[in-house]
Amino acid sequence: MKNVLLVVSACATAFVALVGFQKLEHPLQFPQFTTQHLVDSTQLKPDSLPQWQRVYNSLRLKEAGLSLEGFRYAWAGFQKEKFTKSILAIADFSQSSRHKRLYVIDLKENKLLYNTYVAHGRNSGEEFARQFSNKNSSYQSSLGFYRAMSTYQGKHGLSLKLQGLEENINHRALERAIVMHGADYVSEEFIRRTGRLGRSQGCPAVSVDDTKKLIPLLCNGAGLFLYYPDNSYLKNSKLLAGLEEETQTGLRSQPYTSLKNTN
To answer: What single string gives the DSSP state of each residue in 147-179?
Structure first.
C-alpha cells in the first residue's frame, strides 16, 4: 500500500512540475516582438524625423506627387543660399508635364501655397524632360537653384527675371533670357489635345492666369529649384556638396530663418 502511495505521489509531483514548466514557457515566447519592430516604430514617430522630412510629411507632398529626394535637395540648397523671402518654388522635372509639378511653399509658415503646371524647354524632351543645358540657344532647361529677381513686361506679358546661382550649371540664365512667364500652351486644354504641355525655349513657363499670383509672390528674393535626378548635376552642384555630412550634423534640423534683415 505504501508503495502505491509513493508511486501516485511521484506521478502527481511530475505532473505539477510539467504544468508549471508549460505555464512559464509561454510568457517567454515573443514571436511578434523583435528588434525590427522596435526600429520601425521609432521611425514612425514624427519627432524622430529630420525637420525637412517632417515638413514634407506635414504638407502631404508625397500625395501631391513631389519627389522626396527632390524636396530634400531643395531644402538643403535653400538653407545654404541667402534668399530674402521664405518662399521656395520647386519644379519637379522627374514628373510628366501632364502633372502639376510646380510646388510653391512658404517654409516660414509651413504652407503649400500653390501646386500647378510648369513647362520645360522644347529640346529637353517632349512629355518628360530628359536633357538639360546651360548653353545659349540650346532651348533646354537648366537644373538647379535660381533667385527670383525683378519683374518686367515682355512679349509674354508679365515676366520674372531669374538669376542662375550655380556656376556652369545655370549661371547663364540672365544672358539666355531664362525667365518665368505665362504661356497659352501651359493649360489643361493643351494637355487634352496633345497629351502633354507645350514647351518653352528653356523657361519655366506657367499658365497666363498663374503669372498673376505666382510672379508677385516670388519676385525680389524667393528661391526656385529645378529638380531632376541627374547624376551630373548632383555631382557638380556646390550648393549640394557634402549633403550627407550636413544632414547628419544639423543642417536639416534647423528651421528656416529669413535673412532679409541681416548684414
So the answer is: EEEEEEEETTEEEEEEEE-STTTTTTTTTTT-E
